[in-house]
Write a structure and sequence with these properties.
about 525 residues; Rossmann fold; 6-stranded mixed beta sheet; globular
Length: about 525
């Protein structure tokens, strides 16, 4: 890539704030014609906001954008498309009930004598897909094809509008290896036609397989722009998390949690996974143990949690769950079945998947217990209040009373209420997915202390956090994930931040336990 070549697209000094949140600060990005440019960063780094500014969803508070050297300021996604900037999202944003050809040319149907020219429509759709090496029945309804083909159709639509900048936002998250390679072939073909491609992903292997350059974002700022050959995987991870690599043996972990549990296994899974979502894996969680899932965002941590909880259905493997009371020898078919067996799950996004903001703290706390009992066996109001008051006191939830709307509480107190919801069910196993994200330091410390106290009382915990230091401090063992596969496991004194980073980077092969 000629460093003196004028960028097709350049963003300079882009800032954007929302109430109480600075999403972007002086962010920058350059895209050249005929290149694949990967945008990397942890959750909350600002990638999505930067894309939304570029595509007219959000107006920037400061900064400028230039396309072919001319200042632009799209005020809507349609305006961005008219400028030649197209986006294909992780969730295909097309009309599943229309044909492939109709989706490619919707709003731009060829006409003849005032009517849609169906023969021309199908011919042009076949030609467009043929240039991408794809031959399918363009008259067939879109939802009859797999997700990979639907994404190709979305790309064909973008390219058919003569887009010179193509943004692919997590396009491989639902694809298997063969489908990813098919997508990469298409990306290389478009690169050869001079299209500038911005590739957003969390998969390290894919980044190094396809990228010409990499921009790393952290905390709403652009940490830097790099050539892949000048940035090895360990350095990339360090820049994403904002912490230097510490070689194994030089870290100073808290020894209190380093002794491996000798208790019986509460949960054992073998060959457990789902095609296109998570590669088959073996995993074991013992009674009274914290098992951490280490890995970057997109490595499969949340996918694993959802499969175990029955929120997504596994299509391979077997599971054995036994707490001495409940016994299961097959994957849970639904969250309700998992709850009845003694599992609890605090999801990653408490606002979307956790709290019901319009309900009170009391109502949010008793929700899972009521679901476990069944809606025909209502919990008396007096008992609800007693349960809620107990956990408000136990976890230090700061609220005038349990009847206050949970939506008016701080993030830390909402998170404590979610923890209380599952503790009220007296679970044998609790899945905590990013339990301290977006909360202040004091609340984070209180929640972590509660996690360890619960473990000492015999509760088994599957712990997920993007903060590796946090994972190291609370975990007896850590299963390390990369690109939706389990690639290693650490236990006891092996559990160190540097060792986890080394396995994530793929620089050392670890024996899978």
């Amino acid at each position: 890539m000629d460093s003196l070549q004028q960028p097709v697209l350049e963003m300079r000094g882009i800032s954007r704030s929302f109430p109480g949140v600075r999403a972007l600060h002086q962010a920058s990005l350059r895209l050249h014609a005929g290149e694949i440019h990967s945008l990397m960063g942890q959750n909350g780094a600002g990638k999505s906001t930067l894309i939304k500014v570029l595509t007219g969803v959000h107006a920037p508070d400061a900064g400028e954008m230039r396309l072919h050297g001319e200042c632009i300021r799209p005020d809507s996604p349609l305006a961005a498309q008219q400028l030649g900037i197209a986006t294909v999202y992780q969730e295909v944003n097309l009309c599943p009930n229309l044909s492939v050809a109709e989706n490619i040319f919707i709003g731009r149907f060829p006409a003849r004598r005032g009517k849609i020219d169906w023969a021309a429509l199908n011919r042009e759709a076949r030609d467009e897909l043929g240039r991408m090496g794809l031959e399918i029945d363009v008259s067939a309804q879109l939802d009859t094809f797999p997700v990979a083909i639907q994404q190709m159709v979305a790309i064909a639509r973008a390219v058919s509008m003569d887009s010179r900048v193509l943004i692919l936002d997590e396009p491989t998250s639902s694809l298997d290896d063969d489908e990813v390679e098919q997508l990469f072939d298409t990306m290389r073909m478009l690169k050869g036609r001079g299209v500038a491609i911005l590739f957003v992903t969390h998969f390290l292997d894919q980044v190094y397989a396809i990228s010409d350059r990499i921009t790393v974002m952290r905390n709403g700022e652009c940490e830097g722009e790099y050539l892949p050959e000048a940035l090895d995987r360990m350095a990339l991870i360090s820049k994403m998390i904002g912490r230097a690599y510490v070689p194994p043996g030089e870290a100073c972990p808290d020894d209190e949690n380093r002794t491996e549990s000798s208790n019986a296994a509460l949960l054992s899974v073998r060959g457990f996974g789902r095609r296109g979502l998570m590669q088959p894996m073996d995993l074991e969680l013992r009674q009274g143990e914290v098992l951490g899932l280490g890995g970057l965002l997109g490595s499969g941590r949340t996918e694993t949690a959802r499969l175990l909880f029955g929120a997504d259905k596994a299509d391979s493997g077997e599971i054995e769950f036994s707490d001495g009371i409940h016994n299961s020898h097959r994957p849970f078919s639904s969250p309700r079945e998992a709850i009845r067996a003694g599992l609890g799950y605090c999801p990653e996004d408490r606002k979307t998947d956790g709290i019901i903001a319009e309900l009170s703290v009391r109502e949010n706390i008793i929700l899972a217990l009521q679901a476990r009992r069944g809606w025909l066996r209502g919990i008396p109001l007096r008992q609800q209040r007693a349960i809620a008051d107990h956990y408000v006191d136990l976890l230090g939830i700061r609220t005038p009373d349990a009847e206050k709307s949970i939506g008016k509480l701080s993030g830390g107190n909402q998170q404590k209420a979610m923890l209380a919801r599952w503790l009220a069910t007296d679970p044998a196993m609790l899945i905590l997915d990013e339990p301290t994200r977006g909360i202040d330091v004091a609340a984070k410390q209180e929640i972590m202390e509660q996690v360890l106290a619960l473990c000492r009382k015999g509760l088994s915990i599957l712990f997920i956090s993007s903060d590796l230091d946090e994972t190291v401090r609370v975990s007896h063992r850590v299963a390390v994930l990369r690109d939706r596969s389990k690639v290693g496991e650490l236990a006891g004194n092996e559990v160190e931040e540097g060792a986890i980073m080394q396995i994530i980077a793929g620089s050392e092969r670890m024996e899978l336990r």
